Amino acid sequence: MPDVIVFGLSGPSCSGKTTIALQLARLFPRAIVVHQDSFYRPDSQIPLHPTARIQDWDSPESFDMQAMVRAIGTAREALTRADGAELHGVDGADQTASQWANPSADVDRLIPPAAIASIRNSALRSLRVDAPHDIPFAVVVVDGILLFYDGADDGVSPGTACDVGALVYAQRDTLRRRREARTAYVTKEGIWVDPPGYFDAVVWPNFTRYHRSLISAVPHVADGPAAAGSA
């Protein structure tokens, strides 16, 4: 078993990736979470959507993918060198929610402590160890809307830096309701507020456009009930 496992959680905006990522990381005593949201380019570099003619925050070009791949490598190295205590200098590494997602306090309330304890105990049994500090590996958890996207060049997609991954998703109406319930996002150069209809014009079409291969491997992912499939 490797000393460090990099686990990628990808899926559409508001599918629950960050909630899962943070709780998964807390199951392990040595873990780093890397948020793709930390690697958005400056506002002035966000491209326009070709048909909606508004800024497209859900496209690969909106992120510095190479910087993210480097950060994942740095996180892996940090956990290999130490026990995870020395995380300074790891861009995007955090144990809190990205500001583009739910606040950390909300994330903590979404899953009861008893459920986390049950999952932890199940994981320990599966690994055949008695306590979390006996787990023989560290974990880098990576979350983002575009980890395993179609058409990525080798070495540029964050998915190439992951050892294993999963696609997290929910029904389209659920995703829209969650996205539209959010207010403003603090960006590198200001504030972004979704214009009316942004989810249907940009968020959902981009998810289906950049994940055709994953969607084809999981029946009904585009419009079916909430579920998760291997990436």
UniProtKB/TrEMBL annotation:
Organism: Coemansia helicoidea
Keyword annotations of the record: Kinase, Transferase
Protein name (Swiss-Prot/TrEMBL): Ribosylnicotinamide kinase
